[in-house]
Amino acid sequence: MSNKEIKNLEEIFNQRIARDEKIEPKDWMPEKYRKTHIRQISQHAHSEIVGMLPEGNWITRAPSLRRKVALLAKVQDEGGHGLYLYSAAETLGISREEMYEQLHTGKAKYSSIFNYPAVTWADMGAIGWLVDGAAIINQVALTTTSFGPYARAMVRICKEESFHQRQGFEILLSLCKGSEEQKAMAQDSLNRWWWPSLMMFGPKDEESPNTEQSMKWKLKRKSNDELRQQFVNQTVPQAKILGISIPDPDLKWNEEKQSYDFGKIDWDEFWQVVKGHGPCNKERMTARVGAWNQGTWVRDAAVAYAEKQANKNLNKAV
Ligand code: FAQ
Known about the structure:
The protein is an all-alpha fold and about 325 residues long. Helices cover about 70% and strands about 0% of the residues.
C-alpha cells in the first residue's frame, strides 16, 4: 500500500473516531492502535486472572456458607472477565498462547494491586470495596472506549463488578458493627489497602507515557488522575458509613474544588511493585506458571478429543 493510501485510510479512521463510531476487528486501523489495544486489553485480562489468587486463597476459610458461596461466585466471575478480555484481544490478531507466554515471562504487566497479600478475612471486604470499587470507576469509563469488543466486554464486566463491590462493602459493614477486634481488623485492612488502591489508576498524568495517545483514540476516556480523584471522592463518604478512618492525614474536603485533597502517593513503592519487587510478585507468578504447567495434560486431552471428534465427523461425511 502506498503512503498516500495509508494516509487516506488514517484520515477515514480518525473521522470515525471523532464521530464516536466503534472500530471493529476487521476494520482498517493504524498498527499502533492495534498494538496499544493488545497491550492494554491483555494486561487487563492478566490482572483479572492473577487477581483471582488473593481471594481464591480465602474460599476455604470463609466464615459461613453464605460468605463462601458469594466469594466463590466472585472469584469465578473474575476468571470469566479474564476470558472475555483474552477473546477481545485475540480479535486483534494475537493468540492466547502468546499472551500467556508474555505474562509468564514477565514481558506483560498486570495490576500492581494483586502483588499485595490478603492476610485476614477483612481483606476480602477491602478487596471488594476498594479494589473492585477502583476497577469499576476505571471500567465504566471503558464501556464507551472506541474498540467495539473491548467496550462490549466492559458493559458486562461492570455489572458483575458492582456486585463484587457491594459484597466487599457488606463484609466490612458486618465487621464494623461487630466486636472491637472485628472493627480493628477492618481498620487494619483499610490501612493496608488504601494506598495500593490509589496506585491502581497508574502513574500521575504527567508521568503517564500512554495517556495522551490513548485519549486521542478514545481508548481512555479519562486520565489516571481524573479517575483517581473520582475514586477518592466516592470512597471517603463510604468509609464514614463504615466508621473507619482513611489512613491519610492530608485528606481534606476542598470547598472550592468540591473535591477531596489527598496526600502524596509513594510512587517509588508503585514502581518497585510494577517492576516485580512487590511483596507477592514471585508468589503470584509461581502460581500462574505452575497452573499452566500442571494443565498441560488437560489441554492435550482437549486437543486429542477435538481431533477424534473431527475425524468421526469426517468419516460420517464420506
Ligand atoms: N499496575 O502510561 P500509563 C480489577 C503501567 S482489574 C501495573 O498510565 P496506561 C478487577 C502501564 O501498563 C485491574 N502496571 O499506562 C478485579 C504502563 O506500562 P506499559 C486492572 C501499571 O495503560 C478486582 C506504564 O505503567 N485494570 O482490578 C499500573 O495508559 C478484584 C505507564 O502507565 C485494568 O487493567 C498498575 N496499576 O494506563 C480482579 C483496566 N498502572 O504497558 C480481581 C484497563 C500503570 O507501557 C479482584 N487498563 N501501569 O509497559 C487501564 O485503564 C490502563 O491500562 C491503566 C494504565 C489506567 C491501568
